[in-house]
Amino acid sequence: AKRRGNNNFEWFTQDINDKVERHVLMRHEIQEALKCKQFSLVYQPIFDQNQKICSVEALIRWNHPVQGVISPYEFITLAEHTGQIIPMGRWVIEQVCQDMLQLQAMDIPTVSVNLSPLQLSRNRFADDIKGLLAEYQIEARQIVLEVTENVLVSDLTNASSILNELHKQGFRIAIDDFGTGYSSLRYLQELPIDILKIDRSFVCDVGEGKKYEGITRAMLAVAQELQLQVVAEGVETEEQLTFLKTQDCEFYQGYLLALPMAIDDLARFCEQKMQA
Ligand code: C2E
Ligand code: CA
Ligand code: CA
Ligand code: CA
């Protein structure tokens, strides 16, 4: 019989090769996808306490000709590694600009866009986005930029200067997945932040006697103290919604209230809501 060590080694290199090959392939396919317009956006509503839609979050989808719809969890990280997140992110913002008139007709005043740290770290980002807005005659205050705490940890000085510039232009800034990063809370005071989005991992475990009830309550208190708006992400049950409402959380997003939808479905959703 062959020595086991050898076999293990073979398996190991085999795995690496597969991974590298898969990434090379994916990189090429993303290139194609950008060229052939295989990406699309879905919009998930964010509701206020009166169940009115106050905003929507733009979420990217990859409609692959063979694999079907691919989740961003599968390709965003790779696109960040290859730098393809730059053209991809620009496409997202341009698509949001193109959809803005239709969203305004639905009485939706703002759209949230997810930014990856790499996009934000580019010097040209502020100018790029300003150019797009001018082209489509859209005002900065109609756009919420969602960034995660990781952006701040890696390079606080740079993040701070670009966020300040964007905020001065009128963009609103949201901290995404709040509570899951490793940064101190000091940045909340020092950066121009308007909104905190409490991560789903906390929201899915709130309610009488549940594990994250205390932490969620504390996050809401911090937000209130600093006069930040709060969105609870990933609300899936009535129990969660009720708990959040009793804690004076202002805004909600999650499958219980609405799924992410293509823009035409969103229009129908809004129309039905008006008639209800
Ligand atoms: P995220 O920014 O935290 O977005 C929320 C994710 O949670 C979305 O997944 C949404 O579909 C999902 N979600 C919403 N409500 C619920 C719920 O009640 N329960 C559960 N289990 N999930 C819910 P999605 O669309 O698959 O996006 C995943 C992540 O990919 C996003 O997380 C974001 O980090 C990233 N992403 C999506 N679109 C973009 C984009 O255009 N640019 C960048 N840079 N990242 C994006
Ligand atoms: Ca987000
Ligand atoms: Ca999030
Ligand atoms: Ca996330």
TrEMBL record:
<feature type="domain" description="EAL">
    <location>
        <begin position="23"/>
        <end position="274"/>
    </location>
</feature>
<protein>
    <submittedName>
        <fullName>Bifunctional diguanylate cyclase/phosphodiesterase</fullName>
    </submittedName>
</protein>
